[in-house]
Design a protein that fits this description.
292 residues; mainly alpha; membrane; transport; MetI-like; Putative transmembrane component of ABC transporter; MetI-like_sf
Length: 292
């Protein structure tokens, strides 16, 4: 019996798909990894290139410590409010029985708004509720309500919190929506069959499952707010004492600037945001394990 199967030719090599990663790898190396390493090394060097800890000791300056505390407080407040409002909106859309057509536009807007920051966002808020903004002038002219006399000032810490919420809330919606989708209907039905109320279901089943996602998203929102500079600088200038503005003042080349102290400031920011992002990744892995 003869073999009629076609003869096997030389084995063809599969195309090197990993080459597609080269542009991303080169971009990350040139604009992320190498600058970060330069910052880390520069934090422990003098202008002459000798090793020193004086730059890190300079972080004990009261003005710098105050800037760190203000930045941490800004990150905590905007992350907490962003998580609360964003979770409420996402839960209303995913689980609240709202029309399904609302979800698409909401997620599309959230994707755009979460990346809308910097000078355009600062200008938008100044033109709307700034000292001579559209709403500010309308309220003062037509209703006799002066926001400044009521204690609101956009060019302040509270004004910056309000501005940051424009991208913090949409970011929370984008991240928490898949976690809410992962809540299985069977869990709700089983809780109802066992006599649990809606509040008991959320307290004993849903929130414990979602807790890693919520805490991880809080950490991510904190890091997102802590490291933002363009919006804060465009909105308040040097008036607000936060770390990114303090860092910008040290490295921009003024007479009183100290680039290596700026490296130390940036090194402190890398440590804080690195811990926050590491916590987010770890908690996200734990939450995905539950929701599979």
């Amino acid at each position: 019996m003869t073999d009629t199967s076609p003869a096997k030719g030389p084995r063809r090599r599969s195309p090197p798909y990993w080459l597609g990663l080269l542009p991303f790898t080169a971009f990350a190396l040139l604009f992320l990894i190498l600058p970060t390493m330069q910052i880390v090394f520069g934090a422990f060097q003098t202008p002459e290139g000798r090793l020193t800890l004086a730059n890190l000791r300079g972080l004990n300056d009261p003005s710098i410590l105050s800037a760190y505390w203000t930045s941490i407080k800004l990150g905590l407040v905007t992350a907490a409010i962003g998580c609360l409002i964003g979770f409420s909106v996402a839960a209303a859309v995913v689980l609240g029985g709202l029309p399904r057509w609302i979800r698409g536009p909401l997620l599309t807007f959230s994707g755009v708004a979460s990346n809308f920051a910097g000078v355009p966002l600062a200008f938008a808020f100044l033109a709307t509720i700034g000292p001579v903004g559209l709403i500010t002038v309308f309220l003062r002219t037509n209703l006799g309500v002066d926001l400044r006399t009521l204690g609101f000032n956009l060019l302040s810490f509270n004004g910056l919190v309000l501005t940051y919420l424009f991208f913090q809330i949409p970011l929370m919606i984008l991240i928490i929506t898949p976690a809410l989708d992962g809540l299985k209907r069977e869990w709700r039905e089983a809780a109802s069959m066992l006599g649990a109320s809606g509040l008991q279901y959320w307290r004993m089943v849903a929130l414990p499952i979602l807790f890693p996602s919520l805490l991880g998203t809080f950490a991510l929102l904190f890091a997102n707010s802590f490291g933002a500079i363009a919006t804060a600088f465009a909105l308040t200038g040097p008036q607000l004492n936060i770390v990114p503005i303090k860092l910008f003042a040290q490295i921009r080349g003024d007479v009183l600037g100290n680039p290596h102290l700026g490296y130390a400031l940036a090194f402190g920011m890398i440590v804080i945001t690195g811990v926050a992002n590491g916590l987010y990744i770890w908690l996200r892995v734990r939450s995905e394990r539950w929701l599979k």
